[in-house]
Design brief:
331 residues; alpha/beta; 5-stranded mixed β-sheet; Metallo-depent_PP-like; 4-stranded mixed β-sheet
């Protein structure tokens, strides 16, 4: 059973099992949060994104999430966006702008395959090949950019560096080759191909193929290419925010809040419908492992926790504030 397989009762049962296991493992967190909701201290809203996409096809799992958070609604569909009119805010996850992580018809995006066939399997295969037992290998999905994963694994693996490098390169190459031969991947590539242009499908295939063949000394240049082609997602999110605010049903709103990219930030958008507008990204609560991409030399990663604090105020704020935005990081 794969997350990119068509929805089915069997898949929904697996999703419910995973959700219940997560709630059990993080019982103290959910109990504390639910207590704050039940005593009125907090008001929590759950918006669907791409990593929890399968909740859209698993009613019992949705009900379990709501019970754990103390939210009403049971098995009802989870919202994908919310409007806060007094604060003039439109909030949604942001993945709908990212064609790798969203399909308009609700089918499985390529991101599901990248996660399940590369990111999840890679540490398993590395452990098997190198007898490496570091728990930190499970942080693999926090590595940015994604194509720097082989370099990151090499920094964790013990043993002779040259031998480790060969094994890591071989495991990654084998997974990439298998990935590109996956029928679901081939179908996605074909559906997203646009003749006579370097389309998204070709860019993804090119970067994956290059990463499978790249030598260790080539990784900094490959990373630069990754940033050039894919860091533009922040620009796309900001442009999409302008389009959303220009819609008639969003008249009177000035702020768009997303997540998705894992990098927090804000971007003033200019005047939209007569008001100054701004786009915010709240980033992630997960520890980031980011590859340095300026200095030359051996690839090096910085692990850090990034904090983003964002509050919006209604028209009655005594200080006249519309929002407060603070960022920080610790490593």
């Amino acid at each position: 059973m794969k997350p990119y397989h068509p929805p089915s009762p069997e898949q929904a049962a697996v999703v419910l099992e995973a959700v219940e296991a997560t709630i059990a493992a993080e019982r103290r967190f959910f109990d504390a949060l639910r207590g704050k909701v039940e005593d009125g201290t907090l008001e929590v809203h759950y918006l669907l994104g791409n990593h929890d996409r399968l909740l859209a096809h698993a009613p019992a799992a949705r009900a379990a999430v709501r019970r754990a958070l103390g939210l009403p609604g049971g098995e009802a569909a989870l919202p994908t966006r919310m409007i806060f009119p007094e604060e003039r805010v439109l909030a949604y996850h942001g993945h709908t702008v990212d064609a790798v992580c969203h399909e308009p018809d609700g089918s499985a995006p390529l991101g599901d395959l990248l996660a399940s066939e590369l990111i999840v399997r890679f540490p398993v295969e590395i452990r098997r090949a190198l007898q490496v037992e570091q728990a930190s290998l499970d942080d693999i999905d926090d590595v940015r950019p994604v194509l720097a994963v082989p370099a990151w694994v090499r920094t964790l693996a013990e043993g002779e560096p040259r031998q480790v490098a060969r094994v890591v390169a071989r495991v990654w190459r084998d997974l990439i080759e298998e990935f590109l031969e996956n029928p679901f991947v081939k179908d996605w590539m074909k559906a997203h191909h646009r003749p006579l242009k370097l389309d998204l499908a070709q860019r993804v295939k090119l970067l994956l193929a290059l990463s499978a063949r790249a030598k260790q000394r080539d990784e900094p240049r490959l990373t630069q290419l990754y940033y050039l082609l894919f860091r533009l997602i922040d620009v796309r999110l900001a442009k999409a925010a302008v389009k959303e605010l220009e819609k008639r049903e969003h008249r009177g709103l000035s702020y768009v809040v997303n997540g998705h990219t894992h990098f927090a930030g804000m971007k003033p958008l200019g005047v939209v419908q007569g008001e100054s507008a701004c786009y915010f990204n709240t980033g992630t609560w997960r520890t980031l492992h980011q590859l340095g991409n300026v200095a030359r030399g051996r690839p090096s990663f910085l692990a850090y926790d990034a904090a983003a604090y964002l509050v919006f105020f209604g028209p009655g704020d005594p200080l006249g504030r519309r929002f407060e935005w603070w960022q920080g990081a610790g490593g």
